[in-house]
Amino acid sequence: MATFVSAVAVASKNVGTALKAFVAKAGGLFVQAKRKLREFRLFAKSKSKAARIKLVAGMANVVDQVQKGLGIALQAAAGQKLRLARYRKVAWEKTQKLHGTMTKLLPQIRYWIKTGFVAANKIVSLQIPETYAIVRGKVGKSVEFGLNWGIARLRGGYLLATVARDKRELADTRFAVRAVKDHIAMFGKPPKAYAYDRGGWSQPNVAELKKLGVAQVGLAPRGQARWEVQGKVKDRLVSERAQVEAGIGTIKCGKYGFTRPAARSESTMGMCGQRAVLGFNLNKLVRGLAERSGTVLVG
């Protein structure tokens, strides 16, 4: 909420007279919001849960007033947007986006204040509202925030990355089949062998992969189910599947910048992720060519 107030104050100053008038008129609300924010940061930890909820509710009321005033100002300034250019046009679009995001976020905040439960599809970022919480269940990293990705590994160690449009699209049970379909669309034929961990296993998935033309289906089974492959084939597929995690860990390092990209939109986040994978693949290709020609790489 504090980010919203600050961002609106900055962006609105650069967009026409109507929004400038709104900023001047709402100056008292901005001061009030800063005071409540300071009170929350300094004293919230020492107060009871009821007192903290009261502070949040007070901040929500101030933001609600700012939101209503901003909506009126945007309607009044709608006729001026055609005359805007360059950074003023960018500021206009940003102000509209902030207003639209807060229209959805404020009811979610009030729902949490009223019930104590987080609303479904909770917005976690004001600047990039398309991001979402991803439950990881790992030690020290139970929840991450961002976009969900599906990573596939080709023989030779090259990676293919697919970004999800929502957090459910690339669930393991779906991506186990989706990765093979994407492979067919890209290369014109299914892979001869395919491995995936037990998160993607199910009898329908095994049947679907065989129907798609995968000869060696290496989905790790759940419970008492049996592997579809045995012996050396099984060992090789288990080894290949384990190497996917190594590739994911590599693109997450600072060299490639897959995690925490310097992005301010969903599309830029997707571009940064694909750029990281492209850099990883190009490095692997160049190293492979150097090994074949006996060239020594330094740097």
Structure overview:
The chain is mainly alpha-helical and 299 residues long. The protein folds into two domains: 2-115, no CATH class; 132-293, no CATH class. It is 57% helix and 10% strand. It contains nine helices and six strands. The chain has helices at residues 2-12, 16-25, 27-43, 49-77, 87-115, 172-187, 203-212, 231-251, 266-293; strands at 132-138, 141-146, 149-153, 159-163, 193-196, 216-219. The strands form three sheets. A two-stranded antiparallel ribbon has the order 1-2. Strands 3-4 form a two-stranded antiparallel sheet. Strand 3 and strand 4 (159-163) form a beta hairpin. Helix 1 runs parallel beside helix 4 (49-77). The longest helix is centred in the N-terminal third of the chain and has 29 residues, at 49-77. It is elongated and about 75 Å long. It starts with a helix and ends in a 6-residue tail after the last helix. The mean pLDDT is 82.
User: What integer is the average pLDDT?
Assistant: 82
- Parts with pLDDT < 50 across at least 5 consecutive residues: none
Tally of distinct domains: 2
Please give the share of residues in helix: 55-70%
Reading side by side through the largest sheet, how are the strands ordered? Answer: 1-2
